[in-house]
């Protein structure tokens, strides 16, 4: 998969590209990442990328032309253009999976300031939101959604790690423990040290069900 991020702040992505699973996915040629800065698609000497809002209002809006030119530089028949936006479709594991399976090239647009000229809607395929809150820019959103998508691309991470992850099989993951066996009076459940695989499996199923109930409770509105 190729992912192009259109961003005024490409520096955000330096750490993202150069560490952990994303770095390995790039090295193993599972993904390719390109960064385009709308500023490089301006014509004026100030390389202006934002302006005042027609009709008045606080803040500045990103100009549409540099962004559309950046899209057009990389867009082809395989491209799927995503706009990060608080009013978009709420991101989920299900959507991550759908995109990982069906799309070959993503172009992800990161808004900033008060957002982007509304005519951008004519140049995108989907608006995606990370949730009902406002971030300063779309960069964190773009990294979050692409991270979730990349780890679902075949052979990016161990297949077995994905099977029991939260949101698979409508369940939240079971509790896991590692060393030490006792930490400040808190012990690892005995069953996990028993070596009895049948019992361990039953305990894990029960723990996953408990965690799923907890997830639902945590997400009830206040
Ligand atoms: C400060 S926000 C603009 C918010 C806009 N004025 C509004 O009220 O909807 C700047 C950019 O951050 C990104 N952004 C902020 N919060 C987001 C969220 N919850 N989901 C997706 N993108 C978000 C979008 O790209 C947005 O254009």
Distance between the termini: 40 Å
The percent range for helix content is: 25-40%
Quick one: CATH class of the largest domain?
Alpha Beta
Taken from the alpha-carbon principal axes, the silhouette is elongated
* CATH architecture designation of the largest domain: 3-Layer(aba) Sandwich
Q: Can you summarize the main beta sheet? A: 5 strands, parallel
Kindly identify the CATH topology of the largest domain. Answer: Alpha/beta knot
Task: Catalogue the ligands.
Answer: S-adenosylmethionine
Strand content: 15-25%
Q: Helix and strand succession?
A: EHHEEEHEHEEHHEEH
- Radius of gyration of CA atoms, rounded to a whole number: 22 Å
What do you see in this structure?
It is a single chain. It contains seven helices and nine strands, in the order E-H-H-E-E-E-H-E-H-E-E-H-H-E-E-H. Helix 4 crosses helix 5. The strands form three sheets. It has a five-stranded parallel β-sheet. A two-stranded antiparallel sheet has the order 3-4. The protein has helices at 12-17, 20-27, 64-74, 93-102, 139-150, 159-163, 197-218, and strands at 2-6, 32-36, 50-52, 60-62, 79-90, 105-109, 126-129, 182-183, 186-187. It has two domains: 2-159, 3-Layer(aba) Sandwich (Alpha/beta knot); 166-218, tRNA(m1g37)methyltransferase, domain 2 (Trp Operon Repressor, Chain A). The protein is an alpha/beta fold and 222 residues long. The structure holds S-adenosylmethionine (SAM). The site of S-adenosylmethionine (SAM) has 19 residues, from strand 5.
């Amino acid at each position: 998969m190729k992912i192009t991020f259109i961003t005024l702040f490409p520096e955000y992505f330096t750490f993202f590209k150069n560490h952990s699973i994303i770095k390995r996915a790039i090295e193993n040629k599972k993904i390719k990442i390109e960064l385009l800065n709308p500023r490089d698609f301006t014509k004026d000497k100030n390389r202006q990328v934002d302006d005042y809002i027609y009709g008045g209002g606080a803040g500045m809006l990103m100009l549409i032309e540099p962004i559309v030119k950046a899209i057009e530089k990389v867009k082809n028949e395989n491209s799927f253009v995503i706009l990060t936006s608080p009013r978009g479709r709420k991101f989920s594991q299900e959507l991550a999976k759908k995109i990982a399976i069906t799309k070959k090239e993503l172009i992800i647009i990161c808004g900033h300031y008060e957002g982007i000229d509304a005519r951008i809607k004519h140049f995108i395929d989907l608006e995606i939101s990370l949730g009902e809150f406002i971030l300063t820019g779309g960069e964190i959103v773009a990294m979050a959604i692409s991270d979730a998508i990349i780890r679902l691309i075949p052979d990016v991470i161990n297949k077995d790690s994905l099977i029991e992850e939260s949101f698979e099989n409508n369940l939240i993951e079971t509790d896991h423990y590692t060393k030490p066996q006792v930490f400040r009076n808190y012990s690892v459940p005995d069953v996990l040290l028993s070596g009895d695989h049948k019992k361990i499996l039953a305990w894990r199923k029960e723990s996953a069900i408990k965690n799923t109930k907890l997830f639902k409770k945590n997400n009830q509105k206040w």
